[in-house]
């Protein structure tokens, strides 16, 4: 579904800031393949990710933060009735979150650097996804969870003509993401190892394509 969701949201106002198709593909795969029933997203934007989650046919509790007036004004329309298939909660700031919930999957796609809050909402098996480059936040996560397994993932595709980012980066590779696995168990270590190899091969391939 990630392709259809990307195409749908690419045509909407505010699309220049939505998650890349590659990131949406990874989010779909991660949610389907792992025991994920709760998601916290920093930076809902125009709603691409909760919409994608609502198509996955899984029981999911979703919390997202969004402070921008324009984004908040279009969310209800962009999400429509689809959102009724997940337990959707939007708040203007993480400071307004007063639940005791811990989340299986945390997506960072907005400004955020509060280590105590992150530790409060993460559990031992949480997966944390950082969309795009966000070098400062990657460094912040590395320091906050020093034992976690980290995979940077990159795409070999370039932005297409239909991409909302085409004008500014037409000859650039599609944005990647970084996945932080908090539990260094055997299963996670195996995935970490395989993904490390895939990324290093992709860096080499990028030099010849
Ligand atoms: C890159 S966009 C998110 C795109 C969105 N995930 C999508 O795929 O449609 C980042 C969003 O985070 C919001 N944001 C940034 N910092 C924030 C903060 N501290 N609290 C709440 N929202 C924030 C911005 O208003 C912006 O809409």
List the helices and strands and how they pair.
Blueprint: H1 2-10, H2 21-33, E1 38-42, H3 48-54, E2 61-65, H4 69-79, E3 87-91, E4 103-108, H5 115-121, E5 122-131, H6 135-144, E6 149-153, H7 166-169, E7 177-181, H8 186-206
Parallel strand pairs: 1-2, 1-4, 2-3, 4-5
Antiparallel strand pairs: 5-7, 6-7
Bound molecules: S-adenosylmethionine.
Residues 17-19, 43-46, 48-49, 65-68, 71, 93, 109-111 line the site of S-adenosylmethionine.
Protein name: Class I SAM-dependent methyltransferase
InterPro entries: SAM-dependent_MTases_sf
Organism: Flavobacterium sandaracinum
What does this protein look like?
The chain has 209 residues and is an alpha/beta fold. The protein has a single domain, classed as Rossmann fold, CATH 3.40.50.150. 39% of the residues lie in helices and 20% in strands. The protein contains eight helices and seven strands. Helix 1 runs antiparallel to helix 2. The longest helix is centred in the C-terminal third of the chain and has 21 residues, at 186-206. It is globular and about 45 Å long. S-adenosylmethionine binds at residues 17-19, 43-46, 48-49, 65-68, 71, 93, 109-111.
């Amino acid at each position: 579904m990630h392709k259809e969701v990307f195409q749908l949201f690419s045509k909407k106002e505010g699309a220049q800031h939505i998650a890349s198709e590659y990131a949406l593909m990874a989010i779909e795969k991660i949610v389907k393949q792992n025991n994920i029933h709760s998601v916290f997203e920093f930076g809902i934007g125009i709603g691409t990710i909760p919409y994608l989650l609502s198509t996955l046919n899984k029981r999911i509790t979703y919390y997202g933060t969004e402070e921008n007036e324009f984004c908040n004004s279009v969310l209800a329309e962009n999400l429509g009735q689809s959102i009724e298939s997940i337990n959707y909660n939007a708040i203007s700031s993480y400071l307004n979150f007063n639940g005791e919930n811990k989340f299986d999957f945390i997506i960072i796609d907005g400004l955020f650097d509060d280590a105590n809050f992150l530790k409060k909402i993460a559990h031992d098996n949480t997966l944390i996804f950082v969309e795009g480059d966000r070098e400062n936040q990657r460094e912040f996560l590395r320091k906050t969870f020093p034992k976690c397994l980290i995979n940077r993932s990159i795409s070999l595709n370039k932005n297409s003509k239909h991409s909302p980012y085409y004008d500014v980066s037409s000859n650039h590779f599609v944005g990647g993401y970084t996945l932080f696995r908090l539990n260094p168990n055997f299963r996670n270590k195996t995935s970490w190892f395989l993904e490390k190899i895939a990324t290093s091969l992709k860096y080499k391939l990028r030099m010849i394509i």
